[in-house]
Design a protein that fits this description.
472 residues; mainly alpha; 2 strands; globular
Length: 472
């Protein structure tokens, strides 16, 4: 019965997120209903926890049932009033797209049925393990679940955490944004007691949301069949499924990276200036939320996503696809969301002496060539079962269709993937973070963060190659 509380637990944040997304689209929607609800679920949960964090830090609420619920009710009420006030304008247009017609043979239908059934069995097995097994993984036990349980017991954002019987730590894992622990705290408060199955179940929803978004956005560009190919490719990655069916934060992180990049792809692919503006406003919101996920977002992903946005906006402005007024309009959106989320979180970290690195201060890293790391990078990426053939396929298709990549909306996404891999490789090759590569920990998780967007790009390149080959 406890598992049923997951639905009311995500209901109000999801509605809140849905209304934010719809209001940002305003007169020119760019999403279909399923996409909007998925983005509402992801953005609503993170944004609701951020507002709860702000009000708690200001001393206005405690981490109690009524504290969390009051924030959700206020946000829902305020946004509902805005939505009702603008309802006529918002309902003037609906976004639709022409699906790619396809006639499936009987054999194709049988193959799709078998692969879908096998995928559902794998995900169901992972979900059963996630919700039925007590936390035992290091990061789950000592970070995400531990912090959530301490918040639940103390009713406040406690930074000093029990480490053994006597030692306490006020930095380390507490330097991570508290979004996931707060969500776990809310679900436990809803149940009235700490329930491992319930508080861990949210992770499988993030995994399913990622798979669904990859399918839906591929369906837009290449049709249902290629959407299914991309979804199957993502669910077939062993390490991504392992992370999706464990209470780690990396699938959650990958989802928050994927959404701004998908919206950036929409911006580049759409010829309508008004819809491009709507997609970029949504991008601004989700780029701001990225700050409140994990520390890596602030250091590795946020600057590069902003660089991609700047390149896209400047290119559109130069090609007269975006007016100067629209560009200035967007500047205020990005500054607004980043200031709203980034500034309070950085201030909180500074005031409490929390490090800005991966649970350790950047200043503590030693610099110098790290032996054996290059071999670890090579083996982990190409010769282990974690990724099957994803990375050779992505690199091979990118090289084979490089002219197409340079001329298509996939260019910024491809550059993002390659630059992030380069950044992470340099960190492992020249700093004491090399242990994260040698131990197959941080290196593998960095690739987990990139897996959904890499699958998206790879599938579209496969589709393009298939069309090119069959039409030749």
């Amino acid at each position: 019965m406890a598992m049923l509380l997951l639905i009311p637990g995500i209901a109000l944040p999801t509605v809140t997120g849905w209304m934010i997304v719809r209001l940002l689209e305003y007169r020119h929607p760019v999403l279909i209903s399923a996409e909007r609800w998925l983005l509402g679920f992801v953005g609503g949960m993170t944004f609701t926890m951020f507002v709860t964090f702000l009000l708690h830090s200001a001393g206005l609420i405690g981490f109690t049932f009524w504290g969390f619920l009051s924030v959700q009710l206020i946000l829902t009420g305020v946004l509902a009033s805005c939505y009702i006030k603008n309802r006529e304008t918002l309902n003037l247009q609906r976004f639709t797209f022409h699906d790619h017609p396809i006639v499936w043979s009987h054999a194709t239908k049988i193959i799709i049925f078998i692969l879908t059934l096998w995928t559902l069995i794998k995900i169901a097995g992972g979900a059963a393990m996630l919700m039925g097994t007590p936390a035992y993984q290091d990061d789950v036990f000592n970070n995400w679940n531990l912090r959530g349980k301490v918040f639940f017991e103390t009713h406040r954002l406690t930074l000093t955490l029990p480490m053994g019987n006597e030692t306490f730590s006020s930095d380390g894992v507490s330097s991570y944004p508290p979004t996931i622990p707060m969500i776990k705290t809310w679900l436990a408060l809803l149940h009235g007691e700490w329930h491992e199955g319930l508080i861990n179940s949210i992770h499988i929803l993030w995994y399913l949301a990622t798979v669904a978004l990859v399918f839906l956005f591929l369906r837009r560009s290449a049709g249902v069949l290629w959407g299914l190919v991309g979804a199957y490719l993502l669910t077939s990655l062993p390490l991504y499924l392992i992370h999706g069916s464990n209470a780690y934060a990396d699938v959650f992180m990958s989802l928050h990276i994927l959404i701004p990049l998908l919206l950036l792809y929409l911006t580049s692919a759409d010829e309508d200036p008004s819809r491009r503006l709507s997609a970029l406003k949504l991008n601004a919101f989700f780029t701001g939320l990225l700050v409140f996920t994990k520390n890596e977002a602030l250091l590795l992903y946020l600057p590069l996503i902003l660089l991609c946005v700047i390149v896209a906006v400047l290119t559109d402005a130069r090609q007269k696809r975006l007016s100067q007024g629209h560009a200035i309009h967007l500047l205020f959106y990005y500054l607004g969301f980043l200031t709203l989320i980034l500034l309070p979180w950085l201030t909180f970290k500074y005031l409490h002496g929390l490090p800005f690195g991966n649970a350790k201060a950047i200043s503590d890293l030693s610099i110098g060539w790290q032996p054996r790391v290059l071999y670890a990078l090579w083996v982990n990426t190409f010769f282990e079962g974690n990724w099957v053939f994803l990375w050779p396929l992505f690199i091979g298709l990118t090289l084979f269709r490089w002219r197409r990549v340079l001329q298509s909306p996939l260019l910024l996404l491809t550059l993002f993937i390659l630059i992030v891999i380069g950044e992470q490789s340099i960190l492992y090759l020249f700093t004491s973070l090399s242990e994260e590569a040698l131990n197959q920990t941080g290196l593998a998780r960095g690739l987990v963060h990139l897996a959904p967007v890499t699958v998206f790009v790879t599938t579209l390149l496969l589709h393009d190659t298939w069309k090119h080959t069959t039409s030749a």
